[in-house]
Design brief:
Blueprint (H helix, E strand, L loop, with lengths): L4 H24 L19 H8 L6 H14 L4 H12 L7 H12 L10 H8 L10 H17 L10 E5 L7 E5 L1 H11 L2 E4 L2 E6 L2 E4 L1 H15 L8 H15 L13 E4 L2 E6 L4 E5 L24 H12 L7
Antiparallel strand pairs: 1-2, 3-4, 4-5, 6-7, 7-8
Helix pairs in contact: 1-5, 3-4, 3-5, 4-5, 8-10, 9-10
Length: 330
């Protein structure tokens, strides 16, 4: 006899509520969710816990059994239609369930397919007991172990350009656990070699496009990117402290005690270089920007043109010489 409409509605709500509770638990659990491990092409019955579900004639926790099978099917790349076939096979070993009830439960379970929920070993153990989990002989253990090893090996691959800037310490006999300790002083030297940086008090100036600019964040970003290249995975912990250590070295090694540090009486920075004035000979010349010799923290937004001659600067200079002592001009 078919159940009444009211019974179906009530039963459907019970099923959906139970399934939603279960999948939320599965989403939050951290133990062996193996989200990034590929199980494509593997028969779900090769997993001891799933095989046990098909063998046990479960009376209690059937909702959790079917959702566990569904999530494992999805993890193994099994289509929705094939998943339905597995669920129907599962329900044949559940005692006391009518075909109409089976259809309703399976249809409701399949609504969870493709929603991004993850299978959880912990949920199976908590629901059906430790006897359902044979982790030592499980593909999950094998895959998780191989995945951890692969991740550890990838984390230890460091670009050769950083050779000598860190020390590698083995934390276990197998060498799978390695601690990477960066050398703050050597990293600071490497960054300063490739970048013109000056520090006055707590302000860091970076040379860019012809002059020094106040850019603390630029240097912090360079340090962060460098440390991220060296300290990956488990070694990325305490990254803030490592950044502070390198920044302290950079500030110390690049410190200047005079500001402004661009007091040049015969030089003027422009867009296409530095104009050097020879007041005595009424001449000037253009040289390339030079961040080590001329440490300007400004630049005039004009370009020097050798084809233009002008005596104004010389005339001003000669007037100044007549009214101001020479040692105050040169």
């Amino acid at each position: 006899m078919m159940p009444s409409l009211s019974f179906c509605t009530e039963f459907e709500n019970i099923v959906l509520d139970a399934l939603k509770v279960e999948v939320e638990r599965a989403k939050k659990v951290n133990e062996h969710t193996f989200a990034n491990i590929d199980f494509s092409g593997i028969d779900i019955l090769e997993f001891p816990c799933i095989r046990k579900l098909f063998e046990s004639g479960i009376i209690h926790g059937r909702y959790y059994a079917e959702i566990s099978v569904l999530l494992m099917c999805e993890k193994c790349g099994i289509t929705k239609d094939e998943t339905e076939a597995y669920l129907r096979k599962l329900f044949t070993i559940f005692p006391g369930i009518a075909p109409s009830e089976t259809d309703l439960r399976i249809n409701n379970a399949l609504t969870m397919y493709g929603k991004g929920y993850k299978f959880s070993c912990r949920t199976v153990k908590e629901t059906f007991g430790e006897k359902f989990c044979n982790f030592l002989n499980c593909l999950v253990k094998e895959k998780v172990g191989a995945n951890k090893k692969e991740i550890a090996e990838n984390d230890q691959q460091i670009d050769q350009k950083y050779d000598g800037m860190y020390i590698r310490r083995s934390m276990n006999k197998s060498g799978t656990q390695v601690r990477i300790d960066p050398h703050p002083d050597k990293l600071a030297d490497w960054i300063l070699k490739d970048n013109n940086i000056l520090t006055y008090k707590e302000t860091i100036f970076v040379y860019r496009n012809g002059c020094y600019r106040s850019e603390n964040e630029t240097v912090v970003d360079k340090v962060t990117r460098t440390l991220n290249d060296i300290c990956k995975g488990v070694n990325s912990s305490n990254i803030d402290r490592k950044i502070k250590d390198v920044m302290a070295q950079i500030r110390t090694k690049s410190r200047v005690n005079v500001y402004p540090f661009n007091d040049y009486k015969n030089a003027l920075p422009v867009e296409n270089g530095i104009v050097i004035f020879d007041f005595e000979n009424q001449s000037c010349k253009l040289i390339d920007h030079n961040p080590t010799k001329y440490k300007f923290n400004y630049k005039i937004s004009i370009k020097y043109d050798r084809g233009i001659t002008n005596t104004i600067i010389h005339d001003i200079y000669m007037i100044c010489r007549r009214i101001i002592p020479t040692h105050q001009i040169n």
